[in-house]
Amino acid sequence: MFRRWWWFPKGAVAAPTPQETLSRRELRARKALVLGEWEALREHLRKVAAERVTAAGAVFQAAELELEGGEPAARRAYRWALEAYEAAGRLLDHAGDADTDLPDLAATILLAEQAVERLAAAHLLHAGQRPGPLLVRCYWNPLHGPAEAAPEPPKGRRASRRKHVTAREAAAERRPACRSCRAAILAGQTPEVLPALLPEKAAPGRKGPLLVPYFAVPRQWSAWSTTACGAYDPGTPALVLRGGHRRPGPH
Description:
The protein is mainly alpha-helical. The chain is built from six helices and two strands, in the order H-H-H-H-H-E-E-H.
């Protein structure tokens, strides 16, 4: 789904690249290529976001929960689920805005999915059962789904022998990764990351626009770059509901 032609290392985001070697026609062609790829991905994610929010609404309608007093854990889970669903709806309302980027749409999808996940946990708690751990999503692209658990360290006699960890294995364990991204890293390849459109003002010396990994966008330009589009931050619903996710730019 996501091409790799636009990839460059995170540390290279702010590094100026001489543009005098490119003609105006080449610059226009590159800009059209970037924006065409971005718009195609944006349209796809808009459709997915609408589907997930609609599906979440149907689940909430069918599984509405009435809680009595004295159920604080179930109440907290249910309230978070409701806020996450409302936040997903807020983001979806702005899905067609000119400044809505791919990570905004990814956050919409994740909030809808997390709302349903937390609603299920609230029902289990209400029934006196303990819900399982919340899903940990892939850092490289949180839309990929669950991160693959790291291999268990050897036990018994084998544990006494110190295992040599290669650079690729260390890189694969550095961030939560789904099976395909983990396999790509172990093979020395670039994982299929979620891209974002880097604002021209955030890339001094470069002729924008640029597609970069979502986590390479400077924090002051994106509410999603450090939280895997909200997947790692339980405060995301509250952030969206108060409007704190809007791109503020540098202070």
